[in-house]
Amino acid sequence: MIRLIALVISIVLQIIAASVALSFMKLTKYRLSWILLSLAFVFMAVRKIIQFFEFFRGTPSVTWQMIDEWIGVLISFLIIFGVILIREIFFSLKRAETDRTRTEKRVLNAIISTEENERRRFAKDLHDGLGPILSTVKMSLSSLSPRISDSSGVVILNNTNYLINEAISTIKDISNNLSPHVLTNFGLASAISAFTSKINQTKAIEIDFKSNMEDVRLENDKEVVIYRAACELINNSIRHSGASRIEIELNKNEKIVTLQFYDNGRGFDTSSLSLEDNKGMGLSNIETRVKTVEGVFILESTPGKGTSALIKVIE
0.85 exceeded by the pTM? Predict the structure, then answer.
């Protein structure tokens, strides 16, 4: 009785397995490997059905035993060749994954490239459009200056001149932040140095920047990614960490370019970044950008012990 129950359960399970395997053939685009394995499941179910009927016959038939044995041989061949050929499915999945990754990188590179082109266009329009207008206004005020003798009028004129100079300076800063000409003309090390020097002038925080890449140029997309990442890390420290000092080292050793970042701020629990939707978006953007240039971004932080980051890119 126990054997009969085991046979019934085995037949039911193998019929289910054969049905599921056959239903997957369309998903595998009727590849030969999966067809062979599906047939193996079908013959396994048939073999169990034969054993089921033989159970009720009592005395095993030599013919049916021979058929059972040859079905077993057939199942073995189907499984062997199916397993050998199934590698094609795994290779196809691997190629699909590789193609998907490449497509994602192409899309991200296109997005970053479009973003940088828009930054350059907007910076150029801002500099070449508003800049000359404000300069013309300044020249007009300068020509008006000798004609004003009233002391209150002179004060107003001087104040207006001051505001126009501030506006021109602000436009230059905005234009440079959008698309730093130093990065385009002189390279990554010079651009980061110029950026940190401006922040040091504010006395809000001390930034120590060191590099052995003064005369080294990288591909444009890699320079842009590392520069934007450095700026984002600095801005995060200024806005959130309460740090008084930042240390940055940009070095190139053989074919590897590394940017090491450290601040002495309050630090944070990095595991919290995955729990909050909005916090850490800047860090997520850094990681995404760095991946587009085949780079690595590692962030480490401990509450009360500051934050450190490493960006590593192959030249």
Answer: no
pLDDT of 100 strictly over 90: no
Choose among 116, 103, 107: nearest CA to 225.
Answer: 116
CATH superfamily, with its number, for domain 181-314: Histidine kinase-like ATPase, C-terminal domain (3.30.565.10)
Element (H, E) at 210: strand 206-211
CA distance 267 to 264: 8
Per residue in 46-97, pLDDT (tens digit) is 887 877 777 776 666 677 778 878 888 888 888 888 877 777 777 877 888 8
Q: Which residue type does 278 have?
A: N
Question: Per-domain residue ranges for the chain?
Answer: 2-85, 117-178, 181-314
Specify the 3-state DSSP secondary structure of 248: strand
pLDDT in tens, 296-306: 999 998 888 89
- Amino acid present at 83: V
Instruction: Yes or no: say if 157 and 144 are a contact pair by the CB < 8 Å rule.
Output: yes
Beta-strand pair 256-263/206-211:
unpaired
Residues 263 and 237 sit within 8 Å (Cβ to Cβ): yes
Q: At what angle do helices 131-144 and 151-178 cross, to 10 degrees?
A: 160
CA 239 to centroid of chain Cα atoms = 24
179 Rama sector, left if φ>0, alpha if ψ -120 to 50, beta otherwise? beta
